[in-house]
Every structure is written in structure tokens, then in C-alpha cells.
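Regression test case RT-17, inverse folding.

Input:
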């Protein structure tokens, strides 16, 4: 058995067991363990989001009408006010003045949620979503007093 992997045993009602097998096949998981591990990871992620102080990395995806007066300036202003958390952004031009913007963010979950809420509620935003993971980005540069 690989290092760091632990075996557990669970009991499931027949219907849940059949649906789990259907999910494994439909989603292309290698086995039930892989599917259950993903479900547990998603549940843990939700738990971390609720706690709010956990350091997370993620993306904020926005869809908007770029012709909306003042919207681009407002989005830029919000991103600048969270310069420590907003790592990068990518703009994809869609049809009919529509834009998809993906921001890479990192910071405490509560703060990332606040950034996403501020961006998503701007007038002209059609839809938006925050996705987070407890994995974080490595430092881009060593800290000033590090041995490097």
C-alpha cells in the first residue's frame, strides 16, 4: 500500500451503493475510493471556507458586458485595492462585447469571498463564481532574509 494512504471501511444503503457505482462510471473515476476521496475533499474544502481564516488559492471567474460605462474602471479599482490577494488576471474576449475574466487569487478564504462578492455584484456583471482550494501557490520570490 502506498505511503500516506489509509484504508477505511464504510457501510452504505443498497441504493446509495448503486448510485455510487453509477457516479464512478459516469464521471470516469478509476474506482469507488477515488470518487469518495473527491467527495471528502470537497466537503473539507467547504468546511475550510466556512472557517474563513484558512489560506486558500483559487480563481474568480467573471462574465460581463465590457461596454457597460465605468465597469472596467470599477473592476480594476477593486482588484487594485486587493493587490496582495489578486495574483493575475486573464481576459478572454467573447462575442458581442462580452468578456470572460479569470482572476487567480490567494489569501484567507473570508477575504477571497469578500473580493469575489465585490466583483460579482458590480453593475454589468452577468455571472461570476469563486472556486478555492486549500493548496497555495509557492512564493514567486524568496523572502528578503531567506538564505537564497
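Golden output:
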Amino acid at each position: 500500500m502506498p505511503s500516506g494512504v489509509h484504508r477505511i471501511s464504510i457501510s452504505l444503503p443498497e441504493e446509495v451503493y448503486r448510485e455510487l457505482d453509477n457516479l464512478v462510471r459516469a464521471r470516469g473515476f478509476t474506482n469507488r475510493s477515488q470518487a469518495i476521496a473527491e467527495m471528502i475533499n470537497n466537503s473539507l474544502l467547504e468546511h475550510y471556507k466556512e472557517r474563513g481564516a484558512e489560506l486558500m488559492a483559487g480563481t474568480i471567474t467573471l462574465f460581463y458586458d465590457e461596454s457597460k460605462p465605468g465597469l472596467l474602471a470599477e473592476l480594476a479599482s477593486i482588484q487594485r485595492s486587493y493587490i496582495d490577494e489578486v495574483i493575475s488576471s486573464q481576459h478572454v474576449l467573447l462575442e458581442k462585447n462580452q468578456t470572460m475574466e479569470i482572476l487567480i487569487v490567494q489569501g484567507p478564504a473570508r477575504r477571497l469571498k469578500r473580493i469575489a462578492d465585490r466583483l460579482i455584484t458590480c453593475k454589468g456583471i452577468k455571472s461570476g463564481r469563486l472556486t478555492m482550494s486549500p493548496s497555495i501557490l509557492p512564493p514567486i520570490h524568496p523572502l528578503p532574509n531567506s538564505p537564497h
